[in-house]
Amino acid sequence: MQKPVRNKSNIICIANQKGGVAKTTSTAYLGAALARLNRRVLLIDSDPQCNLSYSMELDEEQQEFVLENNLAAMYESGQDADACTLRLRDNLSIIAASPDLVMTEVTLDSSPETLADEPERILRNRLEPVKSKYDYVLIDCPPSQGMLTLNGLVAADWIVIPTLASVISLTGLERMMEQVHEIVHGDPPFNVDLKIMGVLLTKFRKDRAVEVELESRLRGCPEEFFVFKTVIPDRSQFGLLGELRTQTGRSLLDLSMVSYSLLPYLTLAMEIEKILMPKPVRQA
Ligand SMILES: Nc1ncnc2c1ncn2[C@@H]1O[C@H](COP(=O)(O)OP(=O)(O)OP(=O)(O)O)[C@@H](O)[C@H]1O
Ligand SMILES: [Mg+2]
Fold this sequence. Notes:
- This protein is an alpha/beta fold.
- It has a single domain (10-275), classed as Rossmann fold, CATH 3.40.50.
- The protein has helices at residues 23-36, 51-55, 60-68, 71-77, 101-110, 122-127, 147-155, 167-185, 209-219, 239-244, 249-253, 262-276; strands at residues 10-14, 41-45, 86-89, 92-95, 136-140, 158-163, 195-201.
- A seven-stranded mixed β-sheet has the order 3-4-2-5-1-6-7, with helices on both faces.
- α8 (167-185) links the parallel β6 and β7.
- α1 crosses α12 (262-276).
- The longest helix has 19 residues, at 167-185.
- The two termini are 28 Å apart.
- The structure holds adenosine-5'-triphosphate (ATP) and magnesium ion (MG).
- Magnesium ion (MG) binds at residues 23-24, 47, 51, 140.
């Protein structure tokens, strides 16, 4: 299979300040899906809740490693990204979070003079020397617009915005768009290369008229943003069997199984690869 944007790592931030819209779940499954397509993937858990890290069900030795080598250590002690990276299996690695990230965010916000780099550029700078080792770097952001999310967006080439098809979630989407606009066009702009790859509808229930209606309204305004063709169904749509087979952690990393939950993310991974495929250059 042809690789998208050769020799270039694609850094994708999975962000929405609205809580519970499946940012972490999407980061974990999309990462696993891309790794299964033979892409080299680095996951970054940039949320003090540490849900992405916990969901990998690390063994004792791995837990010991991430106690010292994690994202907070990378921000605060100047360790480079490689030193803090834990290999989960072929093609899939993680820079884990720790609860200390709460304090990291406070430091980034209130005492930037104690840091060697500009506070919003630290993640970008630390990833620079290692990013060419990966086809994809996926950053799981916390449900806020603070410094950790800002660092993710400044480091990223792309943002994927998971959202539920509910009116309240769509107001969160608007705020996310405003933040992206500020990052690209602000004075000074933090990251002129940041692009919205798409809005991802998650926990979608096609048996709910209101969700179907909101989906079609969202798809009706393509000049503002693209909505991925792939929709992540609510697990209840798979029936009881689907819910029971929900997987995280070790089972997510097990190559012998494809769960109901992983399937839509494999479709999403292929859609993303298509979006990133280099366009043929037309000769004049
Ligand atoms: N497709 C799905 N169907 C049903 N439940 C789901 C689905 N995807 C995720 N969930 C559940 O929704 C909850 C929130 O998911 P998740 O933690 O991924 O969201 P989040 O946006 O990362 O939350 P936060 O904003 O707190 O970081 C979890 O209990 C998760 O198991
Ligand atoms: Mg989360």
